[in-house]
Design goal:
Mean pLDDT: 90
Number of strands: 14
Order of helices and strands: EEEHEEHEHHHEHEHEEHEEEHEH
Radius of gyration: 23 Å
CATH class of the largest domain: Alpha Beta
Largest sheet: 6 strands, mixed
Number of helices: 10
Helix content: 25-40%
Strand content: 25-35%
Low-confidence stretches: 296-302
Number of domains: 2
Strand order of the largest sheet: 6-7-8-3-9-10
Shape: elongated
Oligomer: single chain
């Protein structure tokens, strides 16, 4: 099966500044793939190369087997794109912007699907785009990226400026896109956003891929965090000896927090020997699991 997006050994230099240091990505058809990283890590630079808006110093990009730089028109016809801050033609209403892009792109347009997107995103298409708020401009950009039902949708920070209810609707729409066999590739610096929707994700830091992971598998293998509040302070020697795989992450007078990769049954039985007023068990968020990848990266995107 041909990859929806294949990025091989991608390097980009601006003079002495090296923005990308050999990016490799393989995105499969029908998946929602997250491209994670702190601001300035190289996410937008990678996307601009995929779209042939800038050229790489070295490396290769293909979209469904089409070279994105040597045959960019054919590659881009398979892509719907939302940039991080959409620039829209001034002086037009949102409805006129959609008609304009439909005329420029040509080809079939499912008007019923377009109307459905507009309704679901609660977008007033009669207003001049120049007067729209940041969030409503983002909605227009999302509709433009999706309205032609492209096989690959590339979204750069797609939920910026959107309220939580609209964010949830966008997530539902993207899941529907993937269920139809189309591919979603989106960049974000917000781990929680990726955690709820992506099947796989990669983390880029300082122009390099530091990890690619399967989120379903990551959730299955993730440790449990157990927070306990006791009615009375447990004896000082309580939980002094713990089996392998269980650690105490914090301890107060009446509270103890545990992290366990295994042995939850043993831990619950030990806790039950003391009177408990409150107990919670949860998995760490993606942010807690991967915060180390984000530390110390203050570079600005070239």
């Amino acid at each position: 099966m041909t990859d929806a997006l294949l990025v091989e050994s991608l390097v980009k230099r601006y003079g002495t500044v090296q923005a990308l240091r050999g990016i490799d990505l393989q995105v499969r058809p029908g998946e929602i793939f997250g491209f994670l990283g702190p601001n300035g890590a190289g996410k937008s630079t990678t996307i601009r190369i995929v779209l042939d808006l800038i050229r790489p110093t070295a490396g290769r990009v293909s979209v469904f087997g089409v070279d994105a730089n040597h045959d960019s028109v054919r590659a881009r016809r398979q892509i719907g794109y939302l940039q991080s801050d959409p620039e829209l033609p001034p002086g037009l209403s949102a409805a006129e912007v959609f008609d304009y892009f439909a005329a420029v792109r040509g080809g079939p347009l499912d008007r019923a699907y377009l109307d459905d997107l507009i309704e679901r995103l609660d977008l007033d298409t009669s207003r001049n785009v120049k007067t729209l708020s940041r969030g409503n401009r983002q909605k227009v950009g999302l509709v433009l990226a999706l309205m032609f039902k492209p096989p690959l949708v590339i979204l750069d920070e797609p939920t910026t400026g959107l309220d939580p209810l609209v964010q949830e609707e966008v997530e539902r729409i993207l899941r529907e896109v993937a269920a139809e066999g189309r591919t979603v590739f989106f960049s974000s610096h917000i781990l929680a956003e990726v955690e709820t929707i992506c099947s796989r994700a990669s983390i880029v830091r300082a122009g390099e891929i530091v990890d690619v992971f399967d989120l379903a598998e990551q959730r299955r293998l993730a440790p449990r965090l157990v927070d306990v509040t006791f009615v009375a302070p447990p004896p000082p020697d309580a939980f002094a000896t713990l089996p392998e795989g269980i650690t105490i992450t914090s301890r107060g007078q009446r509270t103890i927090s545990f992290r366990t990769a295994d042995g939850i049954d043993w831990l619950v039985k030990q806790i039950a020997q003391h009177e408990v007023s409150d107990l919670s068990v949860r998995q760490p968020s993606l942010e807690e699991l991967f915060v180390g990848y984000y530390r110390g990266d203050d570079e600005e995107d070239a």
